Predict the 3D structure of the following.
Amino acid sequence: MNTPTPYSFASLATGIHAWLRQAISNDTLLQVTEMVITGVCLLVFLVLLCFFLGYMERKVAAFMEIRLGPNRVGPKGSLQIVADTLKLLFKEGLTPNGADKFLFNLAPGIMVVTSMMAVAPIAFAKNFQIWDINIGVLYVSAISSMAVIGILMAGWSSNNKYSLIGAMRSGAQIVSYELSIGLSLITIVILSGSLQLSEIVESQANGWWIFKGHIPVIIAFVIFIIASTAEINRAPFDLTEAEQELTGGFHTEYAGMKFAMFLLSEYINLFIVSAIAATIFLGGWMPFHIGSLPAFNHVMDYIPSFMWFFGKTFFIVFIIMWFRWTFPRLRIDQLLNLEWKYLLPISMVNILIVTAMAIFGWHF
Amino acid sequence: MLLAPDHITEEGEFIINMGPQHPATHGVLHLKIWLDGETIKKIEPQLGYIHRSIEKMCESLSYRQFIYVTSRMDYLSAHMNNQACALAVEKGLQIEATPRAQAIRVLLGELTRLSSHLLWWASTGLDLGGITPFFYAFRERETINTILEETCGTRLTQNFIVPGGVMYDIHPDFQKKVKDLIKQFRANYHEYDEILTGNVIFQNRLKGVGYISKEDAISYGCTGPTARASGISCDIRKLAPYDGYDKLKFDEVILSGGDCWARYQVRMAEIIQSLNILEQLIDNIPEGDFLAKTKNVVKLNKGDIYQRVETARGELGVYIVSDGAATPYRCKFRSPNFSNLSAIPHIAKGAKIGDLMAIMATVDLVIPDIDR
Amino acid sequence: MNAEELKHKVTELCPRATYDETGEFLTTLIAAPDLLPVMQQLAKDNELHFDFLFCLTCIDWKDHFMMVYHLRSTDLNHCLVVKAKITDTTNPEIESVNDIWRTAEFHEDEVYDMFGVKFLNHPNLRRLFLEADWNGFPLRKNYTDENMIKL
């Protein structure tokens, strides 16, 4: 912590703030302007991120499936996803006749907005956070569970029987897996003693929780990865879409940009759960340190903090993509069995152990 | 609007129409399903979307022509369909194909069976939500199709058989390429086990799902791997050998599980058996003519002919009734998929929607063969 | 069981049956009203035990319909073809065998669809392939359709 981190975004943000203060005297106006700038930056960042994740997913899939993946549009096919977005933009945004038009058009919006809201408290780099709220963990888990409203709305308003079944499945699934996610996050909250994401990151300055917390934290980490894959409806837990069973589930009737918004929210959600896992268990932007090797630690410190954050996040993204392209889908009762009979009891016992660990100071 | 009478019954059962356009039905199968939550209460297949009345067409085609219409029934076993028809005509003429032609027929038939089973394996993975297996299976299937294309000129519907033999001799590279294929297949086979067979989720999706007892399977007229997984010995290659299958050494794979997992294992073991047959025959293709001499206009004597052949999906029966003319008076195809489909409403009763995919995948329906 | 023994056994069940041994399988012709009891005996009898109906079809001989049942015993491994003649061509009717072999349900639906033979006591007799309001029965020899092309 003593060494100054290069490429800090903090000075940039302070600079912009000082410059704006000179230009705008009114405090409220200043705040609004800053919010708008942050929002626009965030939107651009998220769209670019989704382009990248889309490209990454195709390349990972191709790698798993012994083929090349996109390789025609742009260098190494990197503009394929842009071409796809353009195609989706020009497609007709169809609304079925029997659908509830208001809810049908509202649902994709809700999905995207809830996903984007959850980005707010994430610490992208050292001193670089949009909103350092003191109940960050609680906020993220509260917001992310709101996605189910969008899915239920889409499924119900489509007036399609497959969509309805998909939406009902999603209800059961997200409500169940929310528990495991919460419980596995609580293990770290207990250990670090804070709900604030920046403080949780700070608490890992002398080692990431996955190393400090022994086996219970590793168990919590695995449970978090499984449950969050289920929470964001990705294979092998994509029962709400289940193309081969429900022909696309809740988004069967969506086309064009409205469909793209579901895709957008899926990728943002994927990024968020990976970012949260990286922040909570793998130390966020904290570099990798080994206690008795100061030279090694100094080298690690010179890797910019945002690189650490994105490196860890994309590592977890890769793992979740790996699941998707190698596992078949579970059945709905197997899915619920997995949660209620295995993950939940394990998490509960795990919390007891972690609490004992925290009280007696058994962790490093 | 969802609660209109056509969508929900008085008992609160939800009615959904799976198909005719549905990703998992592999064609235009339409199943009307009564659901209670996710549990299937009743299934009623609605057929006919790809009914071309092949049986009626055959009545106006000559005995040489009608063989090739049947390629479009079970298009994945096109070669075996042609073989059944040609054998039926040969039986009527009381001739036999030359030994070389028989060997070529068996070789091409087993290659077709391999490619069909590979497609089944690929689509089973796909139906259960795993997309990756598809590409692994198509790697080997592509090799097979290239071999078939070189010799027959086509990749899927070969149309290579004529009464009395085959149309042309095999391609000079045929033997070498088949040997390479066997080598490639045996080397890659472990990947199939690693990516799908050994997967815990996959096994849990299949084990204990879609059980059909031996008695029921017999009663519903199941044949092929579907029946053999329930412990019924019904391989026509053993029961009523044709084209020299009696001289070959291979095992009839019979399991007693009766569930999707047993059906899966039977087909996986059959892939190995097909490889064994290829291996035995590829170096022992007899020399000689590939076509026996027959009259230009084929006329059969009055009477009935029934010829059975084991396709990749079960027993295909060709029933020809002749009145002495140059065209069949009546031609009936007893297709394996039609009978296997009739068992599906029974198998799937009480299963979940996700199980139905596993059941349809492992019974391996080809829809044009049902409708004909 | 070979053809002679089969013949002997079937004659015991149905004395009026006639036989034809030209084909691969032994063929027996019985009268339509006898069909159901004979079939039940064929399936139940321990020495015959025809548990597998592998083909069920119909032939239109213009002056009569001929139902053809191909039977096999899975454990005793012998086959038998049972034919039943329906003389009434305007309103053909025959007993359904679907409670002996359940596969018959679909096969009989198909025969009804293509030949118009009505099966008595069939649980769900319907047009299997064609639309419910289709006119005529395509596999009958006298079927005509304005769009039909002679191949």
Summary: Chain A is about 70% helix and 0% strand. The radius of gyration of chain A is 21 Å. Chain A has one domain: 10-360. Residues 27-64 of chain A form the longest helix (38 residues).
